[in-house]
């Protein structure tokens, strides 16, 4: 992890420094397209075929029955159960406050306009398998889905042998309707298009490897496919810290993000070169004891420390970068927080490590990466709902607005639009 | 426009009837990709090149100055000006009620979680040129952008010769920051990637032809591109009517949607064969006087009337179809409205033609087509904003949650995540 000095760099160099590693899909696109087409054409049997090939499925059934979920959930150790219960409570509390209110207003006499929010009926949640079972992601996706009132919540996760007890516990606690042991692009295709065995969903959520994220992009571009939560890139954190911060804490925060994957990006902006050096030596100390040390070391090659001219510059650089996670560990974090324009989730002060938001503070950990925070926020209740507009006009209401509509429609050369008003008032 | 009878059709036939016409992009994708790559590589000069080729640009400037906008706006006739002012007022009123409230809650003692809504800083609005200038679309996009507080609102529209006075009036009334006379895929590429002359935007809104909508899809799939409002398909209306409705009104509503384009789809569901026949003969009468008769006739080939077993079946079929526009013109429209699960904008009763929502009732006319209403709503204030989560923990707050976070992180084998908590409490 190198240290750079802002005043020694021109604007072009600064921009290059903050450039995210390019995302290339060319090598996987042929494979993923083939899998999707196969599932669209051959349905369930091709899902089973790929599940055997890629997920290590034994037998011909991908459905994990409710009985098995309950049975496995009972095996959870009590300490972990209590931790999940506490996280559940906080996430539930924060997300239920987001439930939207419907709107109703008489815009003119006799013209009532409403906006109602309704749950998306069928949602699919993808939970990666791989080296660790991310039961926390199921909490983050299924709790808002439940609060939103989604009628059917489908989960796909590639389960090796028997389902992890923590994942089973979360699934039973929240009440998942259908749980399938299937992963990869074939799981996404199954949810997006449906098969003889599994009804299609309206929107797919959740992180995944390059095959999963590419499959999500492809099905969301297809008119007969499914919507998706958001585009996915590697996870990232940007830390802004000054000399009042503890270098140990800052080092630990950078390392916690770095263990996500070799393509993660971690950035520290500080206004003191001395502080930058202290953090770097703390990183070199703490890294020694990490089980995922190799991943962390690879990640730190993409990462950097920049000594900025002042903290206002730091905020401006951060706003341009639009980090998924932003930690502000400075004395004046409150005033800096007001200047934030683009970020996914923000952690303020010395006692707010990113990991509390990853698990249990109450906020969601499904967040926009790769600069998408400029345009979209993280997963919330509204991610699982959509709005519908309603209008009801009385005959007088229509009279009041008729000349306006007729004039505008005729100007746009849409005479049949004008007629639909005129015919009613003849 | 054919009449079908529900009880004579099996489920497969019904599904085929409601299938939307396939969207094919294969022939245009090569052209659009080439234009986008050219603009990415060669910037402003290639935008000018395509604007000359496709938009009929004279000279080398695409920027329409504020002076010219004001000058042209003054040429608007007073009746049209008053109509636009009235529409503006209703749209403003309905949309400002949607402004979201920030959330703040102490999920546990010492853990404060917040969700704040901030405007997307740079937005681009695409307004099609072509046979008519859709100034109403500028109202529908720029009013919520302004209420949301977007810092920079860019408009692209291919202007022939001089800018239409209604469009100029709307642009000056709302206060557009930059207005460019450029259309097509090159306008989308310019906004998504930026050039030496035009700074990139964070999100692009607005309808367009197949080149524009494909370009929007492509830039939204590119990590360095831009977000977009929603996927676009042909416009559509589904009308549910019973014998208490006036067949003249229903015919006019179907025709008003049909004049949008030959690929539009209009559907009538009614529980009375006699009523279906009356509507059909009204269509044949009213169609004679329409200036866009050829478009309407072509559209009606894709369209149909279905005589349903009962109105509850009609609602269920409509929920499965998820129409962009839904008109319920029945005696019991209030009770049917409660059963709606998927639709973009709904028009209730005999005096609520779709065209009032297209222009002036107050609701937005940028709506999800092609079944996307199952997962997304129309354009609103939140389309121009994003949320950011914040969390601030005290030392005691961190203590209260520490064992929960450490336990969950270690179970997920993310030890550096656990360390970021532990190091602070040593």
What is this structure's SSE topology?
Two copies of one chain form a homodimer.
Chain A: E1 2-5, H1 11-18, H2 26-42, H3 44-54, H4 66-73, H5 78-96, E2 103-108, E3 111-119, E4 122-126, H6 135-148, E5 152-156, H7 165-174, E6 178-180, H8 184-193, E7 203-205, H9 210-221, E8 227-228, E9 236-241, H10 247-258, E10 265-270, H11 273-286, H12 293-301, E11 304-307, H13 311-321, E12 325-329, H14 333-337, E13 345-348, H15 354-359, E14 385-393, H16 395-411, H17 415-425
Helix pairs in contact in A: 2-3, 2-8, 2-9, 3-8, 4-7, 5-6, 6-7, 8-9, 10-11, 16-17
Overall description:
2 copies of one chain form a homodimer. Chain A has 426 residues and is of the alpha/beta class. Chain A folds into 3 domains: 26-228, Nitrogenase molybdenum iron protein domain (Rossmann fold, 3-Layer(aba) Sandwich); 233-374, Nitrogenase molybdenum iron protein domain (Rossmann fold); 395-425, no CATH class. Chain A is 46% helix and 17% strand. Chain A is built from 17 helices and 14 strands. Chain A has a 6-stranded parallel beta sheet, with helices on both faces. In chain A, strand 9, helix 10 and strand 10 (265-270) form a beta-alpha-beta unit. The longest helix of chain A is centred in the first third of the chain and has 19 residues, at 78-96. The mean pLDDT of chain A is 96. Chains A, B: Pfam families: Histidinol_dh. Chains A, B: Its cofactor is Zn(2+).
């Amino acid at each position: 992890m190198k240290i750079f000095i802002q005043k020694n760099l021109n604007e072009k160099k600064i921009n290059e420094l903050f450039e995210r590693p390019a995302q290339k899909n060319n090598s996987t696109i042929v494979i993923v397209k083939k899998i999707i087409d196969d599932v669209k054409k051959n349905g369930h049997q091709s899902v089973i075929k790929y599940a055997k090939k890629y997920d290590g499925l034994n037998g011909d059934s991908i459905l994990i029955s409710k009985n098995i979920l309950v049975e496995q959930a009972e095996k959870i150790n009590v300490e972990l159960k209590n931790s999940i219960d506490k996280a559940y409570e906080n996430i539930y509390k924060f997300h239920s406050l987001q439930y939207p209110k419907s709107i109703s207003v008489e815009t003119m006499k006799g013209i009532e306009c409403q906006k109602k929010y309704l749950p998306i009926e069928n949602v699919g949640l993808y939970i990666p398998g791989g080296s660790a079972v991310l039961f926390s992601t199921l909490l983050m996706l299924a709790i808002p889905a439940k609060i939103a009132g989604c009628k059917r919540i489908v989960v796909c996760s590639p389960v090796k042998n028997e389902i992890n007890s923590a994942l089973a516990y979360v699934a039973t606690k929240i009440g998942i309707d259908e749980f399938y042991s299937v992963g990869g692009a074939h799981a996404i295709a199954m949810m997006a298009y449906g098969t003889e065995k599994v009804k299609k969903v309206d929107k797919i959520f959740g992180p995944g490897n390059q095959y999963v994220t590419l499959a999500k992009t492809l099905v969301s571009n297809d008119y007969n496919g499914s919507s998706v939560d958001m585009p996915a890139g590697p996870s990232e954190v940007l830390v802004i810290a000054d000399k009042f911060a503890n270098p140990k804490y800052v080092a630990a925060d950078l390392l916690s993000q770095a263990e996500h994957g070799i393509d993660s990006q971690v950035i520290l902006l500080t206004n003191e070169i001395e502080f930058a050096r202290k953090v770097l030596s703390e990183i070199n100390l703490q890294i020694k004891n990490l089980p995922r040390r190799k991943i962390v070391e690879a990640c730190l090659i993409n990462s950097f420390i920049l000594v900025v001219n002042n903290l206002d510059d730091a905020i401006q650089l951060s706003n341009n970068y639009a980090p998924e996670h932003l930690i502000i560990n400075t004395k004046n974090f409150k005033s800096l927080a007001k200047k934030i324009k683009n970020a996914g989730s923000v952690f303020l002060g010395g006692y707010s490590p990113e990991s509390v938001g990853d698990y249990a503070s109450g906020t969601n950990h499904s967040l926009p990466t790769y600069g998408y925070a400029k345009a979209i926020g993280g997963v919330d209740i509204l991610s699982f709902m959509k709005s519908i507009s309603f209008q009801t006009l009385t005959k007088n209401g229509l009279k009041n607005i008729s000349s306006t509509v007729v004039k505008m429609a005729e100007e746009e050369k849409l005479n049949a639009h004008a007629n639909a008003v005129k015919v009613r008032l003849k």
